[in-house]
Write a structure and sequence with these properties.
By secondary structure, the chain is mainly α. Helix content is about 65%, strand content about 5%. The chain has a single domain (about 5-95), classed as Helix Hairpins. It is built from 4 helices and 2 strands. Strand 1 (about 85-90) and strand 2 (about 95) form a beta hairpin.
Length: about 100
């Protein structure tokens, strides 16, 4: 399954089950809750981290559908942009994106 297929399936499930399909702010909050559940499962060493991350993906797919975003296209474009970026490591070990200097 690709991201577009997952997005479609997640949306169809929401519609069939009668879940939220119109309240975008609510969906962002529910997504945040799923991320928190995944973190909690990881932090407490529960074996359900994968299932919780799957919930995160499904909520994200649905949110993309609600807002008219082609998530697969956006992810592919972002991966390409990230691959072309250069980073510099600061003395404290943090990586920062190199910012091109404007031509004079």
């Amino acid at each position: 399954m690709d991201i577009r297929g997952g997005q479609k399936l997640a949306w169809e499930n929401k519609v069939v089950k009668g879940f939220n399909t119109t309240d975008v702010p609510l969906e962002f909050c529910l997504l945040q809750g799923e991320v928190a559940e995944a973190f909690d499962a990881w932090r407490k060493g529960r074996g359900s981290v994968g299932e919780e991350l799957a919930d995160v993906a499904l909520f994200l797919f649905s949110l993309a559908e609600m807002t008219g975003v082609d998530l697969q296209g956006e992810v592919e474009a972002k991966i390409a942009r990230n691959a072309a970026r250069a980073y510099t490591r600061l003395p404290n070990g943090v990586l920062v994106k190199d910012v091109p200097v404007p031509a004079e």
